[in-house]
Amino acid sequence: AAAATEKKQKVVLVRIETSPEDVVGMHVSEGILTAQGGMTSHAAVVGRGMGKCCVVGCKQLHIDYKARKFTVEGAKTEYKEGDVISLDGFTGEVFSGPIKRVDPEFSGHFKTFMEWVDATRQIKVRANAETEFDVVNALRFGAEGIGLARTEHMFFAADRIPSMRKMILAKNEKERRAALDELLPMQQRDFEMIFRHMDGKPVTVRTIDPPLHEFLPHEPAAQEELAKEMGVSAKDIRDKVAQLYEANPMLGHRGCRLGITYPEITEMQARAILAAAVVVAKEGKKVLPEIMIPLVGHYKELTDQEAIVRRVAEEVFKQYGSRIEYLVGTMIEVPRGALTADEVARTAEFFSFGTNDLTQMTLGFSRDDYAPFIKVYLEKGIYEYDPFAVLDQTGVGQLMEMAVKKGRSTRPTLKCGICGEHGGEPKSVEFCHRIGLNYVSASPFRVPVARVAAAQAAIRNPRDTK
Amino acid sequence: AAAATEKKQKVVLVRIETSPEDVVGMHVSEGILTAQGGMTSHAAVVGRGMGKCCVVGCKQLHIDYKARKFTVEGAKTEYKEGDVISLDGFTGEVFSGPIKRVDPEFSGHFKTFMEWVDATRQIKVRANAETEFDVVNALRFGAEGIGLARTEHMFFAADRIPSMRKMILAKNEKERRAALDELLPMQQRDFEMIFRHMDGKPVTVRTIDPPLHEFLPHEPAAQEELAKEMGVSAKDIRDKVAQLYEANPMLGHRGCRLGITYPEITEMQARAILAAAVVVAKEGKKVLPEIMIPLVGHYKELTDQEAIVRRVAEEVFKQYGSRIEYLVGTMIEVPRGALTADEVARTAEFFSFGTNDLTQMTLGFSRDDYAPFIKVYLEKGIYEYDPFAVLDQTGVGQLMEMAVKKGRSTRPTLKCGICGEHGGEPKSVEFCHRIGLNYVSASPFRVPVARVAAAQAAIRNPRDTK
User: Cβ A396–B336 below 8 Å, yes or no?
Assistant: First the structure.
């Protein structure tokens, strides 16, 4: 895809499924088509965030990467690299050849209507964003803050991933710290960019979340190339990939588990966030950083990570001779975190419901693997909606409501929000309004829908106090 | 291992980790040593059930399957196939060369003591068993029933797995039914064996649980061999394995999701269980079958599967001209199942807490992958105990207590038990007693410990009514 774009061709990325290694290819593509996955698979989530047209889980596709072609079950035509196809992201249709398209437009009436909407709703609407493109888009679509900045997305950029990989391949803490020192100024610049754009609006930054193997290449050829670049043996890389292999990475060594086993990662990230905040505050902007620790299931995980953040904050404030206000909170995305929210809220200054993962664990549905059975489940009416598209209020929602109540029993002022994909889905937004969340956060392209849904929710379920 | 045993050699099985394909090798081994995994990984659970000495998660091992040898980090010696090592399953120590060993003995005093124990405890103790060896052992160790018979363990036997694989590779329902018809008489004979031994004692049979890819070989050589045996192309098998590949199989297409997408599997299993029960009842034995549907998170999953079981039961009773009593219930192992236990208990006549999976999903810990971080967690005191060894009462226990209360609010007589590994761990047994479970179930070798723990729990926390 990248090569094609260099030649200024428009391309549709066709993959069995996408992985973080495809992000660059996704960026330069007009649309994305995958054979596997569902509403919240990598292609769908990342594609939606980029505002790309995306059709996922098209099981009839047989893709042959080597021959650079695909066939469709039951059809005779072969589609080779260079052939033209068109996608409709609303209906999930894939068309052979080009079709006529129009760009969407925002009229003046739309603007007036959205002003009425904003005057009516009682919860805030933020966006999930971390790249400059997304942050600017988020503001354009009316976001009142960033609900989720995924720091790891920044690590995949070409200038950062070598340092990230050095960090992962480090043989000891000293080597790891040296690699993290390389990442620090780059991360800090990213956060400065976000804080400048979001002047006066809160920004929730999540510390590193995905398992480390996602940052290493899995193909032998790419491993050998990387080995050369890094001056290590291909075996070193293979061994590390094998060592990091997990049977169920979703439930593996990720989220705050990384920050707890490698405290120096949290340290570097806290330093980058807080130094950026102080720098931008000194420029006269209003910064409101909220540092969010992911995957907390036990309150002691949060106290462990919070202690690092608070210590680093004092170091940064001393170094710059200037203080700022900031919050430390957590994602509630592990069922145990919700069940023990009263304990977690002793430390957490805010909760953000990560309903993608909370749905995965509460229902026991892997979002990468549920496509084959969810189809039958929906046909048989076992679930009324795809639970990754529309929040399962009875199960996942029950945990959310419990967590809000338990959390506020400990800390009455606890700020609660949602940053899962459901934050942009109207029925789910209404539920969030009803259980007393302070805000919803969705990908920038879904912010206008979330604003309207929040207004409708407020009309149907007026709250006593704003 | 199997080859060595044919030569009447005693062997220790050394693997990076074990998988269901190793079960035969595990059976013929004196002990099992793995480089990966923890307390509830495949090797530990299956090894414990077999009463094998087992040391798992020995990360310092570097095993080279090709060269049939291993080395130990920090040591110079190589251990080749044929070299003697010894294991201590209590301490986790591995010794170079042979050590002096003694077999455990049960004295008369032990028997008397256990009679006092049984007179004191207020909850029943069952065993998890399905092979004749385990079932007989369970009775010998004082089990009062089978709490978990894992039907899929039977499918790995040499005479069954070809039919199982035919079923998986079937191109349509008709082919699938033909393969299931081959499995039916074998499953029925297995259940007859269990019911005969357990005369007068309840037997909980769980319908198929693991994802189907576990029944297919993953190594190219084994795939080609299988292709020859089955008269299909190796590509067919490779394609099926690829199609069944899951990013997170723990949260994938398994448990009742299989029975819902392929109702004919549940049909065959219900038929085998109930026909076996009728046959053995006709022999004058008392059969008490309890059919358990796994991985239920939504009550409609259970009503879907229950309808199949009840329909098949009537067909079987008509065919044999004889009826028996039986129960239909579910495992509570998905957090959503516990959260909606009041709905589930409208259909379920019993709950059995599958605390291995319930712990995995509630904490978001994959038991195959948690070894690297749980070590740090225990060192830092984040968790006091390994949550797969000792039940996490605050989190997982909270869900269990909620499920018992909600379930009995709908169905006051709801029978509740536990069949996870925690059922044999003293602290967890006490918790089960306190929240009002009717029984615990553990691997046969842990039954005596569970009986003692249940008596101690009764003394410390007397229940009003027995």
Answer: yes
